[in-house]
Amino acid sequence: MKLLKKGSKKFDIIAIGRACIDLNAVEYNRPMEETMTFKKYVGGSPANIAIGTSNLGLIVGFIGKVPDDQHGRYITDYLHDKGVDTTQVVKDKEGRKVGLAFTEIKSPSECSILMYRDNVADLYLTPEEVDEAYIRETEALLISGTALAQSPSREAVLAAIEYAKAHHVKVIFELDYRPYTWATQEEVSIYYTLVAQKANVVIGTRDEFDMLEGKENGDNQTTVNELFKYEPDLIVIKHGVEGSYAYVKDGKQYKANSYKTKVLKTFGAGDAYASAFLYALFNGKDVETALKYGSASAAIVVSKHSSSEAMPTVQEIEQLIAEQS
Amino acid sequence: MKLLKKGSKKFDIIAIGRACIDLNAVEYNRPMEETMTFKKYVGGSPANIAIGTSNLGLIVGFIGKVPDDQHGRYITDYLHDKGVDTTQVVKDKEGRKVGLAFTEIKSPSECSILMYRDNVADLYLTPEEVDEAYIRETEALLISGTALAQSPSREAVLAAIEYAKAHHVKVIFELDYRPYTWATQEEVSIYYTLVAQKANVVIGTRDEFDMLEGKENGDNQTTVNELFKYEPDLIVIKHGVEGSYAYVKDGKQYKANSYKTKVLKTFGAGDAYASAFLYALFNGKDVETALKYGSASAAIVVSKHSSSEAMPTVQEIEQLIAEQS
Amino acid sequence: MKLLKKGSKKFDIIAIGRACIDLNAVEYNRPMEETMTFKKYVGGSPANIAIGTSNLGLIVGFIGKVPDDQHGRYITDYLHDKGVDTTQVVKDKEGRKVGLAFTEIKSPSECSILMYRDNVADLYLTPEEVDEAYIRETEALLISGTALAQSPSREAVLAAIEYAKAHHVKVIFELDYRPYTWATQEEVSIYYTLVAQKANVVIGTRDEFDMLEGKENGDNQTTVNELFKYEPDLIVIKHGVEGSYAYVKDGKQYKANSYKTKVLKTFGAGDAYASAFLYALFNGKDVETALKYGSASAAIVVSKHSSSEAMPTVQEIEQLIAEQS
Amino acid sequence: MKLLKKGSKKFDIIAIGRACIDLNAVEYNRPMEETMTFKKYVGGSPANIAIGTSNLGLIVGFIGKVPDDQHGRYITDYLHDKGVDTTQVVKDKEGRKVGLAFTEIKSPSECSILMYRDNVADLYLTPEEVDEAYIRETEALLISGTALAQSPSREAVLAAIEYAKAHHVKVIFELDYRPYTWATQEEVSIYYTLVAQKANVVIGTRDEFDMLEGKENGDNQTTVNELFKYEPDLIVIKHGVEGSYAYVKDGKQYKANSYKTKVLKTFGAGDAYASAFLYALFNGKDVETALKYGSASAAIVVSKHSSSEAMPTVQEIEQLIAEQS
């Protein structure tokens, strides 16, 4: 199976969803109350994956909305500098803001985020602002689950998926569940289910698949049996330090262990994972190898201070895999 | 093809969506400014279809939300008196109101409606208030398009559809497009498309299918070709006085002319049509005959003062068909 | 003391606030669930007082906002027909509606109202829509307390009061407290206090003065002592069937008993009271006589089916006073 | 005249309004897009004045609302450490956030602020959360104009003023106009006028008094003539580098020039001014001397990186006055 073909279209991947600002504690290993200085990075799962896959050599575009202010311009410039096409990054005209994430790093295992997500520009992308012609030109469309949390971003994503299906563009669904933007858990389950049924590849943690199913302690086999009734061909379910699993529609399944690393903070692991996993699939690696790329990439990012800025190179990933195999 | 089987489950049809109050001009053939008295009727497309099909002998239930006030109690009592099961009519606890429709009948061809639809109870039905066990007990679930216009009613309907699909309950989608509750036309197209792809039967006017497709002057054949790629087996497209068309997935198509009648007002025609068309299908009539039942039923209702109260009997319908064949 | 001078300006009174539609039960002495027909009347306290005082011969204007729909046009036309100047009745352009009051008359002592007050045009009158030049031309400005319930109507009224004070226009504050539009009781107390301190005449029920003071079972003497520290010269406190009291800043106080009548419903009594009381003051009656006019007018309206349409004539009022004195 | 008496009550000043976080550019003299690091300070005009006056030796309390998150706790702790009583700093329970101000310092004359003010906790202080007994214990209540921008904070302030008036507490109104929180300019004028009429001391820039009056290029003499009809005894109007003017109800007026300083940024000048001006009045200085204290304090703060942290000592202020007199 060759699910994702590199170079067959103008873009390998177009990501849709939020791009925001992380404000990472400069002084860490302490409560945020005692952190007096913060360093600015681009953040947001689909922006991180756009940067991560572009870093690794894929041709990447981004669809999103940012304000015409200092933070919005910084994000657009940063994406552009990282090689991501920003022609479809829409300027908000209503005075909305970029979302912010102040990160608190008390210890490697105690990290938390103070979010500013009220009235953020990214959730106001409208269906009219999504260009069917742009989506037609990509091999794959990467959907971030958070973009489904509110209208009109929700409908912008649903429209993007319809365009993708009409033009045989593969849909990759990164569940990316963040509790703070959703009204109810029922809504999460309803829209995650709708979109997962239409996606070709679904990637998430076990907890995120539980949100999709609207229940607790779900079982991987039940999950994939249900989703394989619909469009999905490949499903990746991540179990943290226990490793990650890939399920293919033909019945095969694979597992990768997590790599040992010196953890500084846990943020950014999922985005680094998705970036490297997708890079590997696009470059003809088999699913089992792609899982290793994902795990290694995640291990590298959690040892560093930022997410977007720390997205690893192919060499770094392959070196870690070699070291620990 | 036997699409809908009468008596196979506890209910033949469960309708989900709004039930409201029509305030019909007692003095008519004049502008509403000169109408001083209004008569109260139950209204709302899915409520009318529930009443209409119950009148014709089907076993019918209703899922909706009304306030615990005088109008809400009137609606629930009226549905109950008409034989509709109201155990799933939820009481709103937030001070919302029943929607109102003041009808203005200037002349048989000049009718308009003054709607009160701000903060109406029906649009606040939540997914949690939809009971999977109830839906499992019906042969068919009737979706009214207006219930998709706003959250959380939108998600309640999407949840109801997932339950229906899980239990092999047929989904009938009456497009029932009303402009006043939708935020944008793009949203109409997005959600109508999502739901139509999952429905077994889709019924609407040509204009409503244009809203679904997000374009003007659509062509029936293009419409049905696209929808037949998905779940639909039967699609009815109504062209007003020119008659109505039915398209079956196997390629057959049928037409019924409209019946001559003395028009008092145009309201209620679609609900009367759907009621009789579904009645006929449930009773083993072929699609062509079912179209005639629909047309005849519509012709009867437009000659009378109300919608719900004027839903015809089988005898009245069959008599009109006989008279004009 | 001659508080209010008739004919000294272009207008005797300009009222500001809501005009809406009453839908009165045609079949009464029953719960509304059993009322099938409703008769349409103009309603809303300041509209009723405008109509009531115009009926009695004062020169009256009205500042308010109604939609450009059938109900809005009916209201404007009706006010105009009753002799009220409607040049400052603004048309709402945002799709808002006229407020509705369905009246339920179970028995003379059991009346209730089912209100439709969500997103009503009257509460969206803006300060920019209040014309200083118009207010300058009146002897008195009548404020309805309900117009203070929400922004921007609240600020429109506060602006109108500033204009009135700048041009030595008397401010009459009819407390007109309706619970359904206020966010909290604290807000009622805050804005009622602010406005009462600036008003020359304050009229309300004992319960309404309790709302102003933010406490229960208030005492008239305490109430008037506090308010007489500020602008008020005359305060009327109504105690229902026990009668009504007037307090003058110079220390005098008066009482009028209520008149015997055959009560049909209780709606409209306060508006009829204020209309006749103000008429009497404008026509040089002393305060004690004015109280009698108010009481008699209220007694007449509660014996009739409507409020606005039933506003009595001078002759009717004086006849009742004569009969029961 | 001894307007403000130090030590006569438990508190000299209680300030009411916002406390937020300033994120000041660590790398400055450049656009914010190129600033990568931000330093955290407590900000917000009334919080700064509370800190500033406490620094100078007054006994100060603060009434406000902050979330129970890392930023909220930092603010409360910082105020407490600076000697400000925080027993009336209410914890928000609704997930609202602290307001943020990212400062951009392109050059000493080109400073701007990127504000995060959507759904901020400070604007959700309610009237019920303002304690009459607390306000009774202060000599003066300092109102920040921004706290009037939205409900329910607006009503909380109006309630606080009523409590102050009832207990003969002096009301000081710092106009503190910030455009981003107000719905319309008419609202600014309406509420600034209402509050200024009830205040004993009013302090603002000429531009802020223009907002109060709802006009442009107002004239100081007209402004003070109008306000002296009401409660105010002392009005300070600041004209930037041209200096500042004080007007006393008895007709006297005073001017202070601005002090020469090396400007780093313009933020915080007004809060430093008010702090030192009030300190001087409380300590028995005459109005002319108090103006000098205000000007000198402002000159010191604009030469430093922060606002709250840079609030000067009495010694620094008096030294600058001595140097430049």
State the main characteristics.
UDP-N-acetylmuramoyl-L-alanine:D-glutamate ligase; homotetramer; nine-stranded mixed beta sheet; 325 residues; alpha/beta
Describe the structure.
The structure is a homotetramer of 325-residue chains. By secondary structure, chain A is of the alpha/beta class. Chain A has a single domain, classed as UDP-N-acetylmuramoyl-L-alanine:D-glutamate ligase, CATH 3.40.1190. The first copy, chain A, contains ten helices and 13 strands. Chain A has helices spanning 45-55, 70-81, 132-136, 153-166, 185-198, 206-213, 220-227, 269-282, 287-301, 314-323, and strands at 11-16, 20-25, 37-43, 60-67, 85-92, 100-107, 110-116, 138-144, 170-174, 201-205, 234-238, 244-248, 253-256. In chain A, strands 5-4-1-8-9-10-11-12-13 form a nine-stranded mixed sheet, sandwiched between helices. A four-stranded mixed sheet of chain A has the order 3-2-6-7. In chain A, strand 4 (60-67), helix 2 and strand 5 (85-92) form a beta-alpha-beta unit. The radius of gyration of chain A is 18 Å and the shape is globular. At the A-D interface, strand 3, helix 2 and strand 6 of A face strand 3, helix 2 and strand 6 of D. Strand 3 (37-43) of chain B pairs antiparallel with strand 3 (37-43) of chain C.
Write a brief structural summary.
Helix content of chain A is 34%, strand content 25%. Chain A has 325 residues and is an alpha/beta fold.
Please, how many helices of chain A?
Answer: 10
Q: What is the CA-atom radius of gyration of chain A, in angstroms?
A: 18 Å
Q: Regions of chain A with pLDDT < 50 over 5+ consecutive residues?
A: none
Looking at CATH, the homologous superfamily of chain A is Ribokinase
Structural class of chain A: alpha/beta
Mean pLDDT of chain A: 96
Domain count of chain A, please report it.
1
CATH architecture assignment of chain A: 3-Layer(aba) Sandwich
Order of helices and strands of chain A: EEEHEHEEEHEHEHEHHEEEHHH
Q: Regarding CATH, which class of chain A?
A: Alpha Beta
The largest interface is:
A-D, 25 and 25 residues
Oligomer: homotetramer
Strand content of chain A: 15-25%
- Main beta sheet of chain A, described? 9 strands, mixed
Shape of chain A: globular
- Intertermini distance of chain A: 25 Å
Q: What percent of residues of chain A adopt helix (DSSP H or I)?
A: 25-40%
Arrangement of strands in the largest sheet of chain A: 5-4-1-8-9-10-11-12-13
CATH topology of chain A: UDP-N-acetylmuramoyl-L-alanine:D-glutamate ligase
